Protein backbone atom coordinates (compact mmCIF):
# COMPACT_ATOMS: atom_id res chain seq x y z
CA UNK A 1 0.00 0.00 0.00
CA UNK A 2 1.14 3.49 -0.73
CA UNK A 3 1.00 6.35 1.72
CA UNK A 4 0.01 9.87 0.76
CA UNK A 5 2.58 12.66 0.63
CA UNK A 6 2.15 15.02 3.59
CA UNK A 7 0.92 18.54 2.80
CA UNK A 8 2.91 20.04 5.64
CA UNK A 9 1.19 23.24 6.76
CA UNK A 10 3.43 23.63 9.77
CA UNK A 11 6.56 23.78 7.61
CA UNK A 12 4.93 26.01 4.97
CA UNK A 13 3.66 28.38 7.67
CA UNK A 14 7.14 28.57 9.21
CA UNK A 15 8.53 29.54 5.80
CA UNK A 16 5.82 32.20 5.33
CA UNK A 17 6.53 33.60 8.81
CA UNK A 18 10.22 33.97 7.93
CA UNK A 19 9.25 35.86 4.77
CA UNK A 20 6.86 38.09 6.74
CA UNK A 21 9.50 38.84 9.40
CA UNK A 22 11.65 40.39 6.66
CA UNK A 23 8.76 42.54 5.46
CA UNK A 24 8.01 43.65 9.03
CA UNK A 25 11.66 44.70 9.45
CA UNK A 26 11.34 46.89 6.35
CA UNK A 27 8.08 48.40 7.65
CA UNK A 28 9.70 49.16 11.01
CA UNK A 29 12.55 50.88 9.16
CA UNK A 30 9.88 53.20 7.75
CA UNK A 31 8.55 53.78 11.29
CA UNK A 32 5.53 51.47 10.89
CA UNK A 33 4.89 48.68 13.42
CA UNK A 34 2.02 46.43 12.29
CA UNK A 35 -0.40 45.51 15.09
CA UNK A 36 -2.95 42.65 15.25
CA UNK A 37 -5.96 43.05 17.52
CA UNK A 38 -8.11 40.18 18.77
CA UNK A 39 -11.49 40.42 20.46
CA UNK A 40 -12.33 37.32 22.47
CA UNK A 41 -15.65 37.05 24.29
CA UNK A 42 -16.10 34.43 27.03
CA UNK A 43 -14.06 31.49 28.26
CA UNK A 44 -14.22 28.80 25.57
CA UNK A 45 -10.90 26.91 26.01
CA UNK A 46 -10.48 26.22 22.27
CA UNK A 47 -11.00 29.90 21.41
CA UNK A 48 -8.49 30.90 24.10
CA UNK A 49 -5.94 28.50 22.71
CA UNK A 50 -6.46 29.76 19.11
CA UNK A 51 -6.11 33.39 20.15
CA UNK A 52 -3.01 32.53 22.20
CA UNK A 53 -1.48 30.87 19.12
CA UNK A 54 -2.18 33.96 17.00
CA UNK A 55 -0.35 36.21 19.47
CA UNK A 56 2.61 33.80 19.68
CA UNK A 57 2.82 33.98 15.86
CA UNK A 58 2.79 37.79 16.04
CA UNK A 59 5.70 37.82 18.49
CA UNK A 60 7.68 35.57 16.12
CA UNK A 61 7.38 37.93 13.16
CA UNK A 62 7.56 41.25 15.05
CA UNK A 63 3.86 42.20 14.85
CA UNK A 64 2.50 43.98 17.96
CA UNK A 65 -0.43 42.34 19.78
CA UNK A 66 -3.52 44.07 21.09
CA UNK A 67 -5.67 41.66 23.10
CA UNK A 68 -9.21 42.50 24.12
CA UNK A 69 -10.94 39.98 26.37
CA UNK A 70 -14.58 40.46 27.36
CA UNK A 71 -16.52 38.32 29.87
CA UNK A 72 -19.03 35.70 28.65
CA UNK A 73 -21.92 37.94 29.77
CA UNK A 74 -20.71 40.98 27.77
CA UNK A 75 -23.62 42.74 26.08
CA UNK A 76 -24.06 43.49 22.37
CA UNK A 77 -23.15 47.09 23.19
CA UNK A 78 -19.96 45.98 25.00
CA UNK A 79 -18.78 43.92 22.02
CA UNK A 80 -19.67 46.66 19.52
CA UNK A 81 -17.82 49.23 21.64
CA UNK A 82 -14.70 47.02 21.57
CA UNK A 83 -14.90 46.91 17.75
CA UNK A 84 -15.25 50.68 17.52
CA UNK A 85 -12.24 51.15 19.83
CA UNK A 86 -10.00 48.99 17.62
CA UNK A 87 -11.35 50.73 14.49
CA UNK A 88 -10.11 54.01 16.02
CA UNK A 89 -6.82 52.70 17.49
CA UNK A 90 -3.89 53.79 15.27
CA UNK A 91 -1.67 51.02 16.76
CA UNK A 92 -4.10 48.41 15.41
CA UNK A 93 -3.45 47.65 11.73
CA UNK A 94 -6.15 45.00 11.62
CA UNK A 95 -8.12 42.78 13.95
CA UNK A 96 -10.38 39.77 14.27
CA UNK A 97 -13.40 38.97 16.38
CA UNK A 98 -12.88 35.38 17.45
CA UNK A 99 -15.83 33.20 16.41
CA UNK A 100 -18.13 31.77 17.56
CA UNK A 101 -19.48 34.60 19.70
CA UNK A 102 -21.81 33.70 22.61
CA UNK A 103 -25.35 32.88 21.42
CA UNK A 104 -26.86 36.11 22.81
CA UNK A 105 -24.62 38.23 20.52
CA UNK A 106 -25.71 39.17 16.96
CA UNK A 107 -22.56 38.11 15.06
CA UNK A 108 -23.46 39.79 11.75
CA UNK A 109 -24.12 43.11 13.45
CA UNK A 110 -20.68 42.91 15.11
CA UNK A 111 -18.79 41.91 11.94
CA UNK A 112 -20.45 44.70 9.94
CA UNK A 113 -19.07 47.31 12.35
CA UNK A 114 -15.45 46.35 11.60
CA UNK A 115 -13.69 48.95 9.45
CA UNK A 116 -13.27 46.97 6.16
CA UNK A 117 -9.70 48.32 5.91
CA UNK A 118 -8.95 46.63 9.28
CA UNK A 119 -10.76 43.36 8.53
CA UNK A 120 -7.95 40.82 9.09
CA UNK A 121 -10.33 37.85 8.60
CA UNK A 122 -11.77 39.04 5.28
CA UNK A 123 -15.26 38.32 6.63
CA UNK A 124 -16.75 41.84 6.42
CA UNK A 125 -19.59 42.04 3.85
CA UNK A 126 -17.63 44.67 1.88
CA UNK A 127 -14.63 42.35 1.54
CA UNK A 128 -16.76 39.29 0.73
CA UNK A 129 -18.51 41.47 -1.88
CA UNK A 130 -15.13 42.48 -3.35
CA UNK A 131 -14.24 38.80 -3.58
CA UNK A 132 -17.44 38.11 -5.54
CA UNK A 133 -16.71 41.06 -7.85
CA UNK A 134 -13.01 40.28 -8.26
CA UNK A 135 -11.85 43.55 -6.67
CA UNK A 136 -8.71 43.36 -4.45
CA UNK A 137 -9.45 43.24 -0.71
CA UNK A 138 -8.72 41.25 2.46
CA UNK A 139 -9.25 37.53 1.78
CA UNK A 140 -10.59 34.97 4.27
CA UNK A 141 -7.64 33.28 6.00
CA UNK A 142 -8.52 29.59 5.79
CA UNK A 143 -9.37 29.50 2.02
CA UNK A 144 -6.30 31.60 1.34
CA UNK A 145 -4.23 29.18 3.45
CA UNK A 146 -5.62 26.20 1.55
CA UNK A 147 -4.68 27.68 -1.84
CA UNK A 148 -1.23 28.71 -0.57
CA UNK A 149 -0.65 25.19 0.85
CA UNK A 150 -1.52 23.66 -2.55
CA UNK A 151 0.71 26.14 -4.43
CA UNK A 152 3.70 25.55 -2.18
CA UNK A 153 3.35 21.79 -2.79
CA UNK A 154 2.91 22.27 -6.56
CA UNK A 155 -0.57 20.75 -6.60
CA UNK A 156 -2.18 21.92 -9.88
CA UNK A 157 -5.34 24.02 -9.46
CA UNK A 158 -6.29 25.50 -12.84
CA UNK A 159 -8.72 23.28 -14.75
CA UNK A 160 -8.83 20.72 -11.93
CA UNK A 161 -12.01 19.34 -10.41
CA UNK A 162 -12.47 20.30 -6.73
CA UNK A 163 -15.03 18.88 -4.34
CA UNK A 164 -15.51 21.18 -1.34
CA UNK A 165 -17.56 19.55 1.41
CA UNK A 166 -19.21 22.12 3.70
CA UNK A 167 -20.16 25.64 2.68
CA UNK A 168 -19.77 27.60 5.88
CA UNK A 169 -18.91 31.26 5.77
CA UNK A 170 -15.29 30.90 6.97
CA UNK A 171 -14.16 28.05 4.69
CA UNK A 172 -16.32 26.37 2.04
CA UNK A 173 -18.28 29.25 0.56
CA UNK A 174 -15.39 31.72 0.18
CA UNK A 175 -13.10 28.87 -0.98
CA UNK A 176 -15.51 28.19 -3.85
CA UNK A 177 -15.39 31.87 -4.79
CA UNK A 178 -11.59 32.00 -4.63
CA UNK A 179 -11.01 28.78 -6.58
CA UNK A 180 -13.21 29.96 -9.46
CA UNK A 181 -11.40 33.31 -9.92
CA UNK A 182 -9.44 33.74 -13.16
CA UNK A 183 -6.17 33.33 -11.22
CA UNK A 184 -7.21 29.81 -10.08
CA UNK A 185 -9.91 28.78 -12.56
CA UNK A 186 -10.71 25.46 -10.98
CA UNK A 187 -14.06 23.71 -11.36
CA UNK A 188 -15.74 23.47 -7.97
CA UNK A 189 -18.58 21.39 -6.60
CA UNK A 190 -19.84 22.68 -3.22
CA UNK A 191 -21.46 19.92 -1.18
CA UNK A 192 -23.50 20.39 1.98
CA UNK A 193 -25.93 18.62 4.32
CA UNK A 194 -28.62 18.30 1.66
CA UNK A 195 -26.30 16.97 -1.08
CA UNK A 196 -27.76 13.65 -2.32
CA UNK A 197 -24.54 11.70 -2.84
CA UNK A 198 -21.48 13.55 -1.58
CA UNK A 199 -19.34 10.43 -2.06
CA UNK A 200 -20.11 10.43 -5.81
CA UNK A 201 -19.01 14.07 -6.09
CA UNK A 202 -15.84 13.37 -4.10
CA UNK A 203 -14.91 10.32 -6.20
CA UNK A 204 -14.54 12.31 -9.41
CA UNK A 205 -12.50 15.12 -7.80
CA UNK A 206 -8.78 15.79 -8.20
CA UNK A 207 -8.85 17.67 -4.89
CA UNK A 208 -11.25 17.04 -1.99
CA UNK A 209 -11.52 19.68 0.76
CA UNK A 210 -13.38 18.44 3.84
CA UNK A 211 -14.67 21.38 5.86
CA UNK A 212 -17.98 20.12 7.22
CA UNK A 213 -17.10 19.61 10.88
CA UNK A 214 -18.25 15.97 10.81
CA UNK A 215 -15.66 13.54 12.23
CA UNK A 216 -14.34 10.96 9.74
CA UNK A 217 -17.02 11.84 7.16
CA UNK A 218 -14.72 11.22 4.17
CA UNK A 219 -13.94 7.50 3.78
CA UNK A 220 -11.22 5.84 1.66
CA UNK A 221 -13.77 4.65 -0.96
CA UNK A 222 -14.76 8.31 -1.55
CA UNK A 223 -11.34 9.16 -2.96
CA UNK A 224 -10.02 8.73 -6.50
CA UNK A 225 -6.61 7.01 -6.11
CA UNK A 226 -3.85 9.62 -6.14
CA UNK A 227 -6.18 12.57 -5.44
CA UNK A 228 -5.25 15.41 -3.09
CA UNK A 229 -7.23 15.52 0.17
CA UNK A 230 -7.37 18.26 2.81
CA UNK A 231 -8.84 17.53 6.24
CA UNK A 232 -9.95 20.96 7.45
CA UNK A 233 -12.88 20.52 9.86
CA UNK A 234 -12.09 19.27 13.35
CA UNK A 235 -14.16 17.71 16.12
CA UNK A 236 -12.84 17.73 19.68
CA UNK A 237 -13.47 14.55 21.68
CA UNK A 238 -12.09 13.21 24.96
CA UNK A 239 -9.74 11.03 22.87
CA UNK A 240 -8.39 14.08 21.04
CA UNK A 241 -8.94 15.94 17.77
CA UNK A 242 -10.75 14.07 14.97
CA UNK A 243 -10.59 15.36 11.41
CA UNK A 244 -13.34 15.29 8.76
CA UNK A 245 -11.21 12.78 6.81
CA UNK A 246 -10.90 9.16 8.00
CA UNK A 247 -7.22 8.28 8.68
CA UNK A 248 -7.32 5.33 6.23
CA UNK A 249 -7.72 7.83 3.35
CA UNK A 250 -3.95 8.12 3.62
CA UNK A 251 -3.71 4.73 1.84
CA UNK A 252 -5.59 6.02 -1.24
CA UNK A 253 -4.77 9.73 -1.55
CA UNK A 254 -1.74 11.02 -3.43
CA UNK A 255 -1.26 13.81 -0.92
CA UNK A 256 -3.01 14.68 2.30
CA UNK A 257 -3.25 17.66 4.66
CA UNK A 258 -3.88 16.22 8.15
CA UNK A 259 -6.33 17.88 10.59
CA UNK A 260 -3.45 19.03 12.82
CA UNK A 261 -0.35 20.55 11.23
CA UNK A 262 -2.13 20.97 7.88
CA UNK A 263 -4.46 23.86 7.11
CA UNK A 264 -4.61 25.25 10.71
CA UNK A 265 -1.09 26.72 10.76
CA UNK A 266 -1.70 28.11 7.24
CA UNK A 267 -4.83 29.92 8.47
CA UNK A 268 -2.72 31.64 11.10
CA UNK A 269 0.03 32.48 8.61
CA UNK A 270 -2.55 34.09 6.29
CA UNK A 271 -3.90 36.18 9.16
CA UNK A 272 -0.38 37.56 9.65
CA UNK A 273 -0.09 38.07 5.88
CA UNK A 274 -3.34 40.08 5.87
CA UNK A 275 -1.92 42.30 8.65
CA UNK A 276 1.43 42.87 6.93
CA UNK A 277 -0.31 43.65 3.63
CA UNK A 278 -2.63 46.13 5.35
CA UNK A 279 0.38 47.82 7.00
CA UNK A 280 2.18 47.98 3.63
CA UNK A 281 -0.86 49.63 2.05
CA UNK A 282 -0.56 52.18 4.91
N1 LIG B 1 -12.69 35.16 13.59
C1 LIG B 1 -12.20 33.92 13.48
N2 LIG B 1 -11.20 33.67 12.60
C2 LIG B 1 -10.68 32.42 12.48
O1 LIG B 1 -9.78 32.19 11.66
C3 LIG B 1 -11.19 31.38 13.33
C4 LIG B 1 -12.21 31.70 14.23
N3 LIG B 1 -12.70 32.96 14.29
N4 LIG B 1 -12.72 30.74 15.06
C5 LIG B 1 -12.22 29.40 15.08
C6 LIG B 1 -11.59 28.98 13.76
C7 LIG B 1 -10.63 27.83 13.88
N5 LIG B 1 -9.34 28.33 13.46
C8 LIG B 1 -8.13 27.65 13.57
C9 LIG B 1 -6.93 28.24 13.33
C10 LIG B 1 -5.72 27.58 13.52
C11 LIG B 1 -5.70 26.28 13.96
C12 LIG B 1 -4.39 25.61 14.21
O2 LIG B 1 -3.35 26.21 14.07
N6 LIG B 1 -4.38 24.33 14.62
C13 LIG B 1 -3.19 23.61 15.01
C14 LIG B 1 -3.48 22.77 16.22
C15 LIG B 1 -3.95 23.60 17.38
C16 LIG B 1 -4.60 22.74 18.46
O3 LIG B 1 -4.01 21.75 18.87
O4 LIG B 1 -5.71 23.12 18.89
C17 LIG B 1 -2.71 22.71 13.90
O5 LIG B 1 -3.49 22.39 13.00
O6 LIG B 1 -1.55 22.29 13.93
C18 LIG B 1 -6.90 25.64 14.18
C19 LIG B 1 -8.10 26.32 13.98
C20 LIG B 1 -9.46 29.65 13.14
N7 LIG B 1 -10.72 30.07 13.28
UniProtKB/TrEMBL annotation:
Pathway: One-carbon metabolism; tetrahydrofolate interconversion
Residue stretches making up the Tetrahydrofolate dehydrogenase/cyclohydrolase catalytic domain: 7-121
Function: Catalyzes the oxidation of 5,10-methylenetetrahydrofolate to 5,10-methenyltetrahydrofolate and then the hydrolysis of 5,10-methenyltetrahydrofolate to 10-formyltetrahydrofolate.
Record keyword Oxidoreductase present: yes
InterPro entries: Aminoacid_DH-like_N_sf (IPR046346), NAD(P)-bd_dom_sf (IPR036291), THF_DH/CycHdrlase (IPR000672), THF_DH/CycHdrlase_cat_dom (IPR020630), THF_DH/CycHdrlase_NAD-bd_dom (IPR020631)
Family of this protein: Belongs to the tetrahydrofolate dehydrogenase/cyclohydrolase family.
Domain Tetrahydrofolate dehydrogenase/cyclohydrolase NAD(P)-binding: 140-281
Protein name, UniProt field: Bifunctional protein FolD
Keyword terms, alphabetized: Amino-acid biosynthesis, Histidine biosynthesis, Hydrolase, Methionine biosynthesis, Multifunctional enzyme, NADP, One-carbon metabolism, Oxidoreductase, Purine biosynthesis
Keyword Repeat: no
Lineage: Bacteria, Bacillati, Actinomycetota, Actinomycetes, Pseudonocardiales
Residues the record lists as binding NADP(+): 166-168, 234
